[in-house]
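To whoever is on call:

I kicked off a structure prediction for a single chain this morning and the downstream step that reads the tokens threw a length-mismatch warning. I double-checked the sequence; it's 152 residues and nothing unusual in it as far as I can see. Pasting both halves so you can look.
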Amino acid sequence: MAAKFNIDGEAIRKLAEILLETDLSEIEYEDNGSRIYVSRKANIAPVTTQVTSHSVLTPTVQAAPAPEVTDWSKHPGVLRSPMVGTAYLSPEPGAPNFIKLGDVVSVGQTLLIVEAMKVMNQIKSTKAGKVTQIFISDASPVEFDQSLVIIE
């Protein structure tokens, strides 16, 4: 029978703080044969849960403080980053953002830009609808397949 792996919430919180302070997307901690792997998406606060040996702590996002946590990454209207890079919400510094919460967008409309290898890539809407969530801030790093925007 495998030994039960116990860890206090404070240890998980400290690992999450390290992720935020260092802007890392993942961290692994091993002690006496037990391992904890914590990962996050950029600009998303990690959620603390009880973990067991070889468990993965996956962060989720909330639109507003609420007791129920929603996994927005599975939402049918989520637009994901097609590449790793830096996301910009406006065409140039000081210009208005391409979109804001509540905007109604059409197919093909530019929502943001992802700079990758000095190339500015326009990220366009794949569907028409209302912008209900924006998960990134201006000039923030993004990872491949990271949730950027929800359009309903």
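Update from on-call: the warning came from a stale cache, not from the record. Cleared it. Sanity check on the structure: Helices lie at 9-22.
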